[in-house]
Request: fold
Amino acid sequence: MKKIGVIGAGSFGTALAQTLADKGHSVRLTSVTRSHLEEMAESRENSRYLPGIKLNDNIEIAYSTEEALEGADIALFAAPAQKFRSAFENAIPFLEDNMIVVNVAKGIEVGSLMRMSEIAKLLKPDTKYVVLSGPSHAEEIARKMPTTIVVASDHMEYAEEVQDVFMTERLRVYTNDDVCGVELGGALKNIIALGAGISDGIGYGDNAKAALMTRGITEMCRLGKALGADIATFAGLTGVGDLIVTCTSMHSRNRRCGIMIGEGLKPAEAVEKVGMVVEGMTTAEAAYELADRAGIEMPITEAIYSCIKEKITAAEAVSLLMGRDRKNEKNI
Reply:
């Protein structure tokens, strides 16, 4: 059994902490908000982000990053993508050489346009980094519904160790060596899910959503190819798999936010109503800039970015996409 420090007590961090604790691992869970930690310590429930799930006795609430990581074998980062840099910087003094860093944030940092692995390696070059991703709603993981995910690392021995730690009868874990592809899949599908939600909110049907998802995976492959990812990764759990679950489920914050935008709410109002971080809103900007830098076409991403920046309406975004010049489907 391992000692695991979890940095970030949102829904996904808490669900994974619960899974690990149920397996018998010793887990310390921390967050940036002390009042939130005190609530969880008293009620033994994360009522803010994962209500209805009583925390396992193997989960200890830690009131600092130092306390969470003391003696840990694994440091699990579950902070939002735009907060990963600060969370990681804060943790560096407490990351021992033997610790494996597991990150679950799905996004691209605005401004630097860096993936989470690139940030970690920049700040601490010897980081034993593993990304965990795939079609995995926190609500279902916490309730022990069958879920399959992927862990990826440049060093397969790290991925395999994390695979063994996380694997349960209800959580199946595959390994992959394509960190770039796994991270891009997890980040970019949130943009397409926004678009799928917008389409639903306008009142369009299954045909439109299927087109968005299918052409969306093409855009993911296009950017991935430009950045050195293995295109085959996007056909797997962290590409098509995560895209399906995020575009079709009401558990998806990105889809729910898109629905409200499609119904006429301003993007900022929709994010406020969701009440949690909507990663696709910031990732759309970063992906748009990455595509521009790489000189590749990502028309769906561009249309969604323009929509959430209120340069065009949702209906105008659809008209722009439908009115594009003729193309060959096989061009990537």
